[in-house]
């Protein structure tokens, strides 16, 4: 029963109401990977990163045990699924070293069982998450797409590559990667996979907006670029999150905030970050962005609130990300 309750409350509006069921299930779940993983659907929705990480760490260990027990010569999808949720949760708490170890492990997998969307998605998305969450643009540009029977998984990698190239100034390579994302969108549309076609369209708009921003001088076509990025956020928010993923690699509303902040529009950026936090609470980059935007907009109360939340979530941080030192410096002088 708890399993189905968790699925029923796995959305931004109702997630908090499923928290009690998730905590109970975490205590009684059998040593089965999916059962151990399930509470994290709620923990992720409300931004309880330590709880989410613990659930998924237990699930990954149970999955590996099953692989050994049956002499499986591949990575089981029921071990891979919680691996993505685990990497996502660790990155939100700044536990980058633990996340890096999992990325290395995933990169060495050559065979999954069964060969399905769940496993293929994880192989593509985990390296992309690690690069993009840390804003390691060169690392994102260097990602290598894995051939897959599920086109959306390849689109995620090409999307990350386009973003990486755009941020590092290789506009030709960014355009080439964007063209790949567009081709996959068209392929999905033609095969009537409308949900995944729309998800890929979000990626197309994000890449297009950031490439346009990178190629233009400050002030040129600013409103059109913002409108394109905002349309990506609107499209993404119109669709339910698929259960294979804890969330977008980078939420479109968060990327909108990043764009507005780069364009020196901090008050608008703050609203975008706060919108993102409504559907994806307690995310590292949204909190850091909201804090910085509030600081630049002269809203000290909200700047302090978001910087404090960021540091609280990263109590066990292993990261060198500059956002934490910025937060500590700000809170120390106020």
Report on this model:
With 334 residues, this protein is mainly alpha-helical. The chain folds into three domains: 1-115, Alpha Horseshoe (Serine Threonine Protein Phosphatase 5, Tetratricopeptide repeat), CATH 1.25.40; 134-250, no CATH class; 266-334, Alpha Horseshoe (Serine Threonine Protein Phosphatase 5, Tetratricopeptide repeat), CATH 1.25.40. It is 72% helix and 1% strand. Helix 5 (49-69) runs antiparallel to helix 6 (77-92) and helix 6 (77-92) packs antiparallel against helix 7 (96-107).
Features:
334 residues; Serine Threonine Protein Phosphatase 5, Tetratricopeptide repeat; 2 strands; 72% helix; two-stranded parallel sheet; 18 helices; 1% strand; mainly alpha
How many strand segments? 2
Mean pLDDT: 93
Q: What strand line-up does the widest sheet have? A: 1-2
* Oligomeric state as shown: single chain
Coarse shape? globular
Poorly predicted runs are none
* Sheet with the most strands, sense and barrel status: 2 strands, parallel
Percent of residues in beta strands: under 5%
Cα distance spanning the termini: 49 Å
Helix content: over 70%
* Helix-strand string: HHHHHEHHEHHHHHHHHHHH
What class do helices, strands and sheet pairing give?
A: mainly alpha
Radius of gyration: 19 Å
Tally of DSSP helical segments:
18
**Whole-number total of structural domains:** 3
């Amino acid at each position: 029963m708890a399993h189905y309750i968790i699925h029923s409350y796995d959305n931004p509006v109702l997630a908090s109401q499923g928290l009690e069921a998730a905590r109970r299930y975490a205590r009684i779940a059998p040593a089965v990977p999916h059962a151990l993983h399930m509470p994290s659907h709620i923990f992720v929705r409300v931004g309880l990163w330590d709880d989410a990480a613990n659930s998924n760490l237990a699930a990954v260990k149970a999955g590996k045990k099953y692989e050994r027990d049956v002499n499986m010569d591949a990575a089981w999808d029921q071990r891979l699924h919680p691996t993505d949720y685990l990497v996502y949760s660790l990155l939100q708490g700044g536990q980058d070293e633990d996340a890096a170890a999992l990325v290395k492990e995933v990169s060495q997998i050559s065979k999954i069982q069964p060969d399905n969307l769940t496993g293929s998605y994880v192989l593509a998305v985990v390296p992309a998450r690690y690069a993009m969450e840390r804003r390691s643009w060169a690392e994102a540009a260097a990602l290598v797409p894995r051939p897959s029977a599920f086109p959306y998984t390849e689109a995620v990698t090409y999307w990350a590559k386009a973003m990486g190239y755009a941020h590092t100034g290789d506009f030709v390579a960014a355009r080439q990667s964007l063209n790949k994302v567009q081709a996959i969108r068209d392929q999905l549309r033609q095969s009537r996979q409308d949900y995944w076609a729309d998800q890929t369209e979000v990626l197309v708009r994000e890449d297009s907006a950031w490439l346009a921003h990178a190629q233009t001088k400050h002030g040129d076509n600013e409103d059109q670029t913002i409108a394109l990025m905002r349309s990506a956020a609107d499209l993404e928010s119109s669709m339910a999150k698929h259960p294979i993923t804890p969330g977008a690699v980078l939420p479109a509303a968060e990327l909108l905030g990043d764009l507005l902040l780069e364009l020196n529009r901090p008050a608008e950026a703050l609203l975008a970050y706060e919108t993102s936090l409504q559907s994806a609470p307690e995310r590292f980059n949204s909190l850091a962005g909201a804090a910085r935007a509030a600081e630049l907009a002269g809203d000290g109360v909200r700047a302090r609130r978001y910087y404090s939340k960021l540091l609280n979530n990263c109590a066990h941080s292993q990261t060198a990300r500059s956002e934490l030192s910025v937060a500590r410096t700000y809170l120390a002088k106020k």
